[in-house]
Amino acid sequence: MNVLMQALLDGICIGAIYGLGAMGLVVIQKSSGVFNLAQGMLMMVGGFIAGSLSVNMSLPMWAAAVLCMLAMALIGLIINFLVMRPLAGESPFTQIMATVGLMSILYGIVMAIWGTLPYIYPTEIIPIENIEIGVVLLSPSYLNGLIIAVVACIVLSLYYRKSREGTAMRATSEDEELAASVGIRVTKVLQLTWIIGSICAGLAGILFGMLGSVNYMMGEIGLMAIIPVFVFGGLESFVGALLAGFIVGVVNMLAGTYLEVTFPGITNVVPLVLMLTILIFKPYGLFGEERIERV
Amino acid sequence: MVKRSYNFVVNLVLFTFIPLIAWGLASTPASAQANATGEVYPGINAPWTEPKNVNFKGTITIGDASDLTGPAAKSVSQMSQGLADWFKYQNEFLGGVKGYKITADVVDTKYDSQNVINAFNRFIDEGKVLIYSGMAYTIPASTEIANRRKVPTIGSSGSVTQALLLPEDEAKKDNYFFQMSPVVASRMAILVKFCMDDWKKKGKKGIPKFGTFNCDTQNGHEAATATRIYAEKLGGHFTIHTFHSPSITDAKAQVTALKEAQVDYILNGPDYDQPLTVFALELKRQKSARWKPIFAGHTDFGTAYIDTGNNAFEGNYCYEYCLDWTDTDKPIIAFLHEINKKWHPKISQRPFLYQTGVQAGIVISEVFKRAIEKYGDPKNIDGVKIREVMETLKDFDPLGISGTFTYIHGDHQGTHSLRIAECKDKHLVPVTNFIQAVPLELTERDGKYWLKD
Amino acid sequence: MDPAGIYRTTYLDDMSIVRTKTQWTILISALILTVLAPFYLSKNLIDVMSLSCCILISTLGIQILTGYAGQISVGQAAFYGVGAYASAILVNDLGVPFIFSVFLSGLIAAAVGSAFGIPSLRLKGFYLVMATLAGQIIIIYLVSHMHFTGGMVGHKANYPSIGPLTFDTGPRLFWLNFSFLLLMTLMAKNIVRGRWGRAFIAVRDNDLAANVMGINVYRTKIFAFAVGCFFAGIGGSLAAHYTGMIHPTQFTLMDSIWYLGYIIIGGLSSITGCYFGVIFFVTIKEILTHLPVSAEMAQYILPITDVAFGVVIILILIFDPKGLNHRWELFKGYYRIWPLGYK
What we know:
The structure holds 3 protein chains of 3 kinds. By secondary structure, chain A is mainly alpha-helical. Chain A has a single domain (2-281), classed as ABC transporter involved in vitamin B12 uptake, BtuC (Orthogonal Bundle), CATH 1.10.3470. Chain A has helices spanning 2-32, 39-56, 61-84, 92-113, 140-162, 164-174, 176-181, 186-211, 218-232, 238-258, 270-281; strands spanning 131-133, 136-138. The N and C termini of chain A lie far apart (54 Å). Chain B has 2 domains: 58-182 and 329-415, 3-Layer(aba) Sandwich (Rossmann fold); 184-320 and 420-451, Response regulator (Rossmann fold), CATH 3.40.50. Chain B contains 13 helices and 15 strands. In chain B, the strands form 3 sheets. In chain B, strands 6, 7, 8, 9, 10, 13, 14 and 15 form an 8-stranded mixed sheet that branches. Chain B has a 5-stranded parallel sheet with strand order 2-1-3-4-5, sandwiched between helices. In chain B, β4, α5 and β5 form a beta-alpha-beta unit. In chain B, α3 (113-125) runs parallel beside α4 (139-149), α9 (273-286) crosses α10 and α12 (352-375) packs across α13. Chain B is globular. Chain C is an all-alpha fold. Chain C has a two-stranded antiparallel ribbon. Chains in contact: A-B, A-C, B-C. The interface between A and C is large, with 52 and 50 residues.
């Protein structure tokens, strides 16, 4: 029973982080209809930038995180400017292929700069020792991940609903040409979505790295972790992404607790199997709306 | 200005070089004993000399296919660098191997068997007669190529299948894979024995419980099985195996399982930086007053814990089959410090596997020396001849950097001894001398025996 | 693009692969030159070419699936791996003759691939990308934990042999792989210019319209998937016997990404494009790995390859989306009228 409770608790914490990563995908998917395959690599880049800042340059963790998010915003801007804007208006197929190229570039850059050395964030602010709550142990870095991810989700949703830019983004996602005709600068909106997407990825990368370490395999593993979340969440909803994150996190942790020791590596595979099954029975995800196609 | 620099040079010569040389001359005679072959090694068993400018008769190039990027990269790239440094020394100070320059052609294999195969094929096509391979994970593929195309390969995999031939195969088969370290099973035997003694020494009652934490690779499974077999043989209580994939992001599940079993000793075989780092972190999270296990494992963790900046591995043990960077009282390590000051002034610390690379360099140089003595011009030497020469190495001492090397036809383990070190204040402090591994019995030479778990 | 004076009057003529005597001459002499390559090229180059043949066969598959039928698959390396393992197990453990096992492993890969495609083929959008990504991870996970695949130890594969003939030297393996490449290229070419190929293109361009025209969209997509994976399986099977030892780390996600890159660089919807893409990147990779560098620098070579690969993909997408094959056509067109061209 303790073990089960522990798995549920950890699953919710880790799920919130997955949800945050998937939100980055949702932002980009909503506005430009592109599935960003490089999201996992962006997570890894964010994690490594914060790692460099906090470990090599010994900045405090919060400063490293803030600087890292600025850097990620810059990276998002560059990606949009150099890759996505020249391809605007092309088919989504072409744009997905461009993210494939991006994936390879980011992977190569990470390997060349940071190599394969794992980074562990300093543990001054967030202590390493567990807190005992009744029968379960709560790790501060897990709790920290949960809080930051949930706050980020709320902020993002509010921004999307209430702010001017948010309204513009929603309008663009409904109909690009119509939005342009009422005076919304679509290129600016797309730029903003890439910036927000990259920041989400960077933050998720840092939080993910705090659980264990940041390492060069995070790109692949991160992508594999957020894809089921993205699909369950129905591709276009922030709250859906967060709730789906909780589900995937719990599944992940249950698999980890009961199967991992005998079948190493299965933790990352179980959510994917679940995703394939769900695609058969509920093709548009748990929180998505069914779309009607017109010719 | 001119005068100032003139003064500087004079002062440098007067107060630095001359005393250093004098000190060097005064202190070396005692240690300047030539080794068995009578070779003089400046800086190791003789005073430093100026680098020689030799007109080489030709070049011997060996292949070096190593995971310079990938999970094992951090340690494996050190092996390549150690090898390259030794070859540089061999060429500059010893005049090469019998007048031939020796170099290594390095190819990154990126933890991908396909790259290994490509690299091996390329090396063999280019006529290289010996390949050094610093990797553990993709070794089966390279062994297969080495045996198919009859070119010897040197690596430190530790797998039983690759090091030993079954008794019935010895007459009809040749093994082209040469190992530089005791097989995993022997390493675990020594480690389990050490843990049992440690338990008694600390005056604890009852039977110690053993558990394993291993990578889900061939070597990891061999280590797990060996731990169970030896723990049961020596009267310990074996509880649980935990395996992990090389790319785990956290080791929560493994540590939780070990905690549930209340394991006293967690044993670990060949493993990588990333899993060991997250394992150390998680172990520190879950350690409590009621559960304080001791971790004993692969030497790689030494490199993992130093960089993580936490003292998670404090008080734990690891095995080493070479001397450590801190063994400065040994001439060979002092020499390596000197070499690194000269050639890599930025690097102050070398992980253990750098020494493994140097060790390989010494052995390879010796092999080529013997081969040239026997066959003359290196052009006449092929892979089969190199294998035959390697199998003549008997109790060859690689300048004290590790135990002696012996290769016989069915047994390619190389050095048979290792020692155990404890982690104190973020340094590895040896707690035993080199312990000779007990040779495996006939039934134990079958690789399948060690892959039961 | 034919010389003056050549008129084609039937559809069949229009679809023929080789049209003029000059083309026949060039084709036959190129074939002879390639077959004789082991006599004048270095051993290492022959090894590289043998492996490239296997990769090319698999690339032909993804060209049909992604280039012609428009279904993005990010799991080609895993299906290649399925073929490799199937063939290694069939030949080494079950004693099936090599010549049957090649085609059997193609069929097995096709079956496995379709199984992963089916859930997502009913949906539009990029569910197929995610499903094949999942397939990539799940297949490699299973392969590295099954008992009969050898797990993390890998699986041996004998040298291929057909009847009394064993292909155990570099040139022989090259001839074997090359002849399979020719066979599969012919097959790919025939598929894409036949009824199925036209159906693929119709589905890619507008599946609702295709449906109205009487094409069974669902069945067409599944068939495209099966064909793509069949090619991957054949390529994998040849690669397994060529390398002699297969291991789960040979079939990674990044390899799947590379397959997509090959067809983008070579040119989507073109069989010749596959050749260009693979040859282009194998050349770059070989040049980079042959650079004489020190042990400290060697670790930057492969990351640089990755970056170069990504940059080339993006540049091609932005500036020349039709790929190298289109460049080649332009070049040919330019040369046809070269000395007497007009502006």
